[in-house]
Design a protein that fits this description.
27% of the residues lie in helices and 15% in strands. By secondary structure, it is an alpha/beta fold. It folds into 2 domains: 8-133, Roll (Ubiquitin-like (UB roll)); 136-267, Alpha-helical ferredoxin (Fumarate Reductase Iron-sulfur Protein, Chain B, domain 2), CATH 1.10.1060. It has a 6-stranded mixed beta sheet, with helices on one face. A two-stranded antiparallel sheet has the order 7-8. The protein binds iron/sulfur cluster (2 copies) and FE2/S2 (inorganic) cluster. One iron/sulfur cluster (SF4) is lined by residues 191, 193-194, 204, 238-244, 254-255, 258.
Length: 269
């Protein structure tokens, strides 16, 4: 039987335990992944990641996981590093794994988690520091699909109009069409195919974005966009496992968008 051993420096160790709740009745423990390339041990090696356990009084912070993380950063450990901006589920920057699911910290209610709240960065991405994943590769993939309107007609003096029917394809009947994607990458980082083939498979977030332009009635580069995806890896590594759609915090359906691209590939043969 094959035996696997993780490299020594990849094992997540137990970290600091801090009770900052002051014995409050409404206390909750947050187990938070910590790693920094600047944490060096006595032998000059970068220290292993660790899970810190920090207990706080929930009456002192807002209701969402992001509120708790910012409370911890402001009052317990200012070195805790995370991305966030809008705190309204719009910018996509606070995506992380909470209680085993990729989601947005700013829209995840603390009370939806039973017991301790486990928080780790988005899975299968290199980590810059603590809860901050390195998104350079996935943004390079995003750039590769050329996510802008390509039209053969001269630019009009005002917006390029669409029929209601055409705009529905982009916006969705309930605002959950591909144009509502906030590029949080919860979907791509929950996709097993993307974990193993992320160097060549575009993954659900980028394919949903590709579909957003392919399906745009104002865009004239459909054939060129499909040509770019016609490849055994870029598109066809999707095996319809559906993790992407199940995890999207905005209720979008990247798996359906991928299926639509596949149908268009077949239709043009
Ligand atoms: S449906 Fe496709 S893209 Fe979505 S999780 Fe499954 S394999 Fe990944
Ligand atoms: S499809 Fe959903 S999960 Fe994926 S990047 Fe867009 S908003 Fe995030
Ligand atoms: S902070 Fe913008 S989506 Fe959470």
């Amino acid at each position: 039987m094959a035996e696997f051993a993780l490299p020594k420096n990849s094992k997540v160790k137990k970290g600091e335990v801090v009770d900052a709740s002051g014995g409050a009745e409404n206390a909750k423990t947050f187990r938070i992944y910590r790693w920094s390339p600047d944490d060096i041990d006595d032998d000059g090696n970068v220290k292993n990641p660790r899970m810190d356990e920090i207990t706080i009084d929930l009456d002192k912070c807002g209701p969402m996981v992001l509120d708790a993380l910012l409370y911890i950063k402001n009052n317990v450990d200012s070195t805790l590093t995370l991305r966030r901006s809008c705190r309204e589920g719009i910018c996509g920057s606070c995506a992380m794994n909470i209680d085993g699911t990729n989601t947005l910290a700013c829209t995840k209610d603390i009370n939806d988690v039973t017991g301790d709240v486990n928080i780790t960065p988005l899975p299968h991405m290199p980590v810059v520091k603590d809860l901050v994943p390195d998104l350079n590769h996935i943004y390079a993939q995003y750039t590769s699909i050329e996510p802008w309107l390509k039209s053969d007609s001269p630019a009009p003096n005002r917006e390029r109009l669409q029929s209601e029917e055409s705009s529905l394809i982009l916006n969705g009947a309930e605002g959950n069409g591909p144009a509502a994607c906030i590029l949080c990458f919860c979907c791509s980082t929950s996709c097993p195919s993307y974990w193993w083939n992320g160097d060549r498979f575009m993954g659900p977030a980028i394919l949903l974005q590709a579909y957003r332009w392919i399906a745009d009635s104002r865009d004239d580069a459909t054939g060129e966009r499909l040509d770019q995806l016609e490849d055994p890896f870029r598109l066809y590594r999707c095996h319809t496992i559906m993790n992407c759609t199940n995890t999207c915090p905005k209720g979008l359906n990247p798996a359906a968008a991928i299926a639509e691209i596949k149908k268009m590939m077949v239709a043009r043969r």
